[in-house]
Amino acid sequence: MFKIFKFIKDFLLFFPLSVIFHPFAVLLNKGYYFNKLIFWIRKNKSQLLLNDFYKPVRDSSTRPVLYKFISDNFDLVNNEITYVEFGVFKGTTFKWWIANNLNQNSNFFGFDTFEGLPENWGFYKKGDMLSAIPEINDSRAIFIKGLFQDTLVNFIQENRDLFLLPRPKVIHLDADLYSSTLFALTQMYPYLNKGDFIIFDEFNVPLHEFKAYSEFVSSFNVKLKPIVALNNFYQTAFIVE
Ligand SMILES: C[S@@+](CC[C@H](N)C(=O)[O-])C[C@H]1O[C@@H](n2cnc3c(N)ncnc32)[C@H](O)[C@@H]1O
Predict the structure, then answer these.
(1) Residue 235 phi/psi, 5° resolution?
(2) What is the DSSP-derived secondary structure letter of residue 123?
(3) CA-87 nearest atom, ligand 1
(4) pLDDT tens digits, residue range 115-159?
(5) In 30-151, beta strands by DSSP E
(6) CATH architecture, domain 49-240
(7) Engineered SS bond to 76: which of 71, 104, 160, 164, CB 3.0-4.6 Å?
(8) Looking at the whole model, is its pTM more than 0.90?
(9) Rounded to the nearest whole angstrom, what is the distance from the C-alpha of residue 45 to the centroid of ligand 1?
């Protein structure tokens, strides 16, 4: 049996039949992660504290409901927090968090190219979502312009003390892309503590945020408990256990 598999493998490695198989492989890969997402939802939906599944119409205006739920239920309004947003665009979400945390010692970091998406994403093209750095009149806010892959390592090194503070971190992943989301998660890993929050904005996109999440939790020693999901798991929030 082993010899047959070895023969098939060597044959396929040697002859360029991949051109024929490629479209099927792409489809199978999509199907695999979509199926994984369906199983994940079935397994996890009962433990959520807030969940609107199933909802026939997508309504992203409910995002603040999720933020407010976490903020109110986990005492984040008056306490010191470190808020880190990956994918700021015009700053809609960033502005919500800064307006709804009243502690003057909190820090708010926003990472973005501010030159648009670095890769195509679904119907969006590289360069879409270009925007100027938002103007926010609050000294707690810092925006870091550039690719996460170019800016994040240095920024964390230079501000390590802030990332090590014993206070809740809210990590908001809204970069849409698999590569960006996985990179952000892996860089934040050493600073994650029990009780930190991770919010995904497009969690139910199988080959992007969901795939990044799946690979992160299966490769790193981290336990994330889902607490809130809105819009059929588009916006899904976790607490670090
Ligand atoms: C959906 S938008 C963010 C929306 C925003 N959170 C809001 O409240 O409206 C996605 C953003 O992620 C940024 N982005 C994606 N991948 C990135 C990367 N690797 N480095 C820097 N910015 C990235 C894009 O530039 C884009 O502005």
Answers:
(1) -95, 115
(2) T
(3) 12
(4) 999 999 999 999 999 999 999 999 999 999 999 999 999 999 999
(5) 50-51, 82-86, 107-112, 141-145
(6) 3-Layer(aba) Sandwich (3.40)
(7) 71
(8) yes
(9) 27
Q: How far is the CA of 147 from the centre of ligand 1 (A)?
A: 10
The domain ranges of the chain are 49-240
- How many contiguous H segments (helices) and E segments (strands) does the chain have? 8, 8
Enclosing H/E stretch for 238: strand 235-240
The conformation of residue 61, written as its DSSP 8-state character, comes to G
CA 221 to chain centre: 17
Residue range 26-63, pLDDT digits in tens? 899 999 999 999 999 999 999 999 999 998 888 888 99
Distance CA 106, CA 103 (A): 6
Task: Tell me the CA distances in angstroms from 211 to 66, 169, 188, one per residue in order.
Answer: 22, 23, 17
180 CA to centre of ligand 1 in angstroms: 9
